[in-house]
Design a protein that fits this description.
This is DUF2225 domain-containing protein. With 230 residues, the protein is mostly helical. The chain has 7 helices and 6 strands; from the N terminus they run E-E-E-E-E-E-H-H-H-H-H-H-H. The longest helix has 22 residues.
Length: 230
Amino acid sequence: MEISPFYEKTVNCIHCKKNFSTLKVRTKSIKIEHTASDFQPVYTDNYVNALYYNVFVCQHCGFSFTEDFSKYFAPGVKEQINEKICSHWVPHCFSNERSIFEAIQTYKLALFCATVKKEKFVITSGLALRLAWLYRSLKNNSQEQRFLKLARDQYMESYSTEDYAGTTMSSVRIVYMIAELSRRLGDYENATRFFSRVIESQRVGGEAKLVNMAKEQWELVRQERGKIAQ
């Protein structure tokens, strides 16, 4: 008997505190062929895309979040969520297998909820980046670029406010993401500036893998700028 790649998880909504069920992907069912230069996981054919199931959508109140969201709500924020999200919520269940279009819908809901909740920039940048990846897999370049720019700008805010402190994101990784997303946006000035910062970090024991990736991508920027100059 073949085991389903999915399992059901009961989640407690961090806003309304009610329970709901959602699907998650079993770790052993995740088969990644390779990882792109902006860390997009490219899955092997015939295997489920774990990205589709990162967002939890509360079927009761509509609040949408990931495991990275803080459980803390600043004074007045819950009222804002009730007014801007819950009062407009038409009960909808995302607890079954998701298509890419449903996955996109969940990320947009989570991005809106994160904005209203005033989540850290490092959280909103991650949501925007994943939306860019999903649109990339649909070959929708305009929407991919739209969300890459949003992700890059949010990463810059995160870097300047250092709100990534205490998360799995290091300062070097944030700088690398700003550089690589800038490169993909054709903003070669920022790409060069921030790739240089990653490369300079090796002097103080910077993350070797990121330093090597930055050197490779910096060379791409140099080639791309050269083509424009011709």
